[in-house]
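does this look right to u?? iron/sulfur cluster version
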Amino acid sequence: MVELGYPRPRIVMSMCLGISPVRYNGSIVYDNFVETLKRYVDVQPFCPEVAVGLGVPRNPVVLCDEGGDIRLVDSKTGIDLTERFADTVSRFIESLNFVDGFLLKSASPSCGVGDAKVYGRDRRVIRRSDGLLTLLARSVQPFLPVESERRLMNYSIRRSYLIKVFSLAFLREALCSLTSKDGIADIHRKLKYVIMLYSPSHLRILGQLVAKRKGYEVEELRESYSRLFKEAIAHTPSRGSYANVFSHIYRHVKDLMTQEERRYVNTLLMNYRLGREPLRTIVVYFRGLLHRFGNRYIAEQVFVDPFPEELDHIFVTDGG
Ligand code: SF4
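got this back:
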């Protein structure tokens, strides 16, 4: 069942992730979380190796270290495909409009996210790296979230990725229908805790932009707000930043709670900061708390209910 009321992020996805059997050996990979996510996002499938004209099946490609440079090489013929790959794939990435993130296949020399093998001259693995598509995506679209299906098994990484792509989709849709300068204040209010999570300094900068909105044209506001928001969420949230946001939210409801409940929240937040509780425990506790005591201001915050809850329940490891 698809939950209504959430924006639909646009995600560039590795084509072999349950879309088409395009792996070098003609196989396809199914991942439970990715299959569920597809119901809530608009997928732009892409296989860089097919895009550069390699067939299916094909020889596997590998990443080789050449004096510190990474080259993409046909593992059987030794032909260096790096330039051909970079030209085609960069053009594709530059052509992307209104995309909210990438979800790529782990461990692939083209699509891997931090876990692609890099071989040295002696044909031994000397390190791990992003795949070539991932490197290009990070360089051409540096502020867009990029993750792999394997990394999204980790609860903290998954939650942050989902907050980012759904917030970007929310902002994209909200800015599209922005007709007056005052509308930007409404958008900013709803994104406040998302921005606080990733970059309190950007919260100040974006707040100043909104406060001075009368001095800008609507189009300038759209462009500046979008750029600064993307910069903000390019950061990685720490335990301290999550605890900070939950503490702010708590201040809005604590007067409605008993003394015992308040003591419990304080202990929970302290234990979370100290690494004694996983993020998931805080998220579940606050979901219940806000169900009981939440007010309109809190309920409107994108941070409080950023994406369909079903995506929180597919198997994950805790990971902080
Ligand atoms: S990992 Fe990337 S390059 Fe390899 S088959 Fe999948 S989409 Fe294509």
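The chain is about 45% helix and 10% strand. idk if thats expected tbh
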